[in-house]
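Risk register update: the risk that structure generation would not scale has been downgraded. Supporting records follow, first protein first.
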Amino acid sequence: MAMKHAVLCQSLLITLTFCGPAIAAPFDAQAVNTASFEGLPTEAPPQKPNEPDARIVRLQILLDRAGASPGVIDGYLGSNLIKAIAGFEALRGLPVDGKLDPEALRGLMDDVPAVQAYAITADDAKDLVDSIPKDYAEQAKMERLGYTSVAEKLGERFHMDIGLLKALNPTAAFAPGETIAVAIPGSAKTGAVKTIEVRRRSGEAFAFAEGGSLLAVYPATIGSEGSPSPTGTHKIQGVSRMPTYTYNPKINFQQGGNRKVLQLAGGPNGPVGTVWIDLTEPTYGIHGTPEPELIDKVGSHGCVRLTNWDVEELAGMVKPGVIVKFVD
């Protein structure tokens, strides 16, 4: 994957700080690939910056590669990024404080450019739908709840927010034959998960192997005040990919004015995304989402919600009988 003439972090030192005015710099693939980190703050700025930060983009990509998911790669500092740093520290057996100290940074760095060129293919433009209505009754009329654009499809494939994808490619039409810049996240982790620990207070799911070694950490939406998640210990019953979704207002929740049972087709923009990991607690599961940017930012209806790419990775490492513990 390496770019022939990629310039890595040695040539440009950028200080990661929001305490004073910053010198404007172009936001592009080179800026991301050459970004370094120093003085990483532990809290986000009071107001969201006007554009993504190249340094944070690179950091999110490196964390993704290391198995500490930052959720959607968007270039902004937030709680999911701080949790990912802490998750990486836990994966490496380092003191866990969510701060990017020199030891953690050394373990995180690699020589593969964070952003690289990608040529859009004809297949990338296939199986798109015009739009996804909010109302479940309208969704139930659709044959599939697919992606609505090439940008959305590629954003999910490369774990990117659509806004970041467009910021890196401001003149792109996202059409077949066009070459664009994309994030290069990590390959899906492999291994056998024996226990999943769902930590409600921090909004995370920890996947452990036999013996207690940590395999991966994911940011998660875990229930809400009105629809809390289960408590105690449960087991995985099975995994369904591209699942259809049965909406039953008497069992699930009230969506709009819908009071009848509805069957919704599968797809990445379906209510439970691309994967449903079924739990022994009836009606509850670990699943994907059509809105990855909202992970751990808005509540769920009691289930554990991950990005589609994170739940796909987790699904590849679990089998029926895996323990799922809900803890505070």
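Supporting record for the second protein:
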Amino acid sequence: MYPKDQSLCSILGYENNIFDNLTSDEKLLLDQIRERKVQLLQEIQQLKDEIAEVTNEMEQMDDGSEESKNNPKTKQISIGKKKFNMDPKKGIEYLIEHQLLQNTPEDVAQFLYAGEGLNKTAIGDYLGEKSDFNIAVLKAFVNLHEFSDMILVQALRQFLWSFRLPGEAQKIDRMMECFAERYCVLNPGVFTSSDTCYVLSFAIIMLNTSLHNPSVKDKPTVERFITMNRGINDGGDLPPDLLTSLYESIKKEPFKIPEDDGNDLMHTFFNPDKEGWLWKQGVTKFGGRYKNWKRRWFILNDNCLYYFQFTTDKEPKGIIPLENIQVRMSNEKSNKPHCFELYATTNEIIKACKVDKEGKVVEGKHNVYKMSAATADEKDEWIKCIKSCISENPFYDMLNARRKKAAQAK
């Protein structure tokens, strides 16, 4: 408490006297508290800016017509779609609660299939969840697709245009299994089993990445594509003419994702190993004295970490190649829990780059990047995925198991 009826100068003098009477440890602690206060104020302002931007987007989602402005139902649908893009589960719950959707897998699937105003990444995340209701929605969603008399590449193009594959292998497995079963039902006799269709579908997706991703230097030939798919048809081989036609189709026209705007990077983000929000620590304009945490959307793929300011951004703010890099738990005390670090094994600067405020690409100057996840489980999952990506892609374990099953079938 300040003394009553004191002028500002008196109050400042009073505070200075208190500070002079503190021990060195107490002064150090006070400085740390003040630094932490600055950090908190910065983070609060960042969150306020993000909330203001989202709120503004929600308010502008109506088409501007008088009918739309005066129609509460139209506004609720717009709000529900925006909620879905931010949190798919909550968005669906909101729409059902306001009786804009029926609480049935078929009605939800139809809503996702129409897809108007919905983020394709959010659709993929919702369809990939393993709850009984979500799995029923997934099956109903796949059944809305008509694959009759389509070659497999055409069916895949249609299917993968309606959403974006999530990064988790288990989610991909469920979604592609449903696709393979649907395709085989509508095209009997093409494959001996849905496992064959499943394995070949993934082979096509990986072929698309290998042929069209600029970072892949060793482009597969049609002969290699045929060789890698031997024995997947219940132990037998698929016709070479079929595999050749699939190869030529992908070589001529790569897969497109719905958000594609001609950006070459779209191939990289087509099927990420993992994606999600992380806090990233960097040096602020204070010359390195203070550290600033920034919330970014990270995508892990092709031995690189890409980060974006928003999930809807089509180009990354920065790229961290996972070359000569390791990941470790962070033992340093921090205001953020669930931290881990990327560090250069060669004790040199990590070969990262980012886009500055003027839109220019500049090289990074860090040999350590500190990250913070929302939970301990999420932190462990990121560390696991990054370690696996540095060594090998863990997704291949799942695919190889299915490949062996298809090859060994009698």
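The CA atoms of residues 343 and 368 lie 4 Å apart. On this basis the risk owner (M.S.) recommends closing the item.
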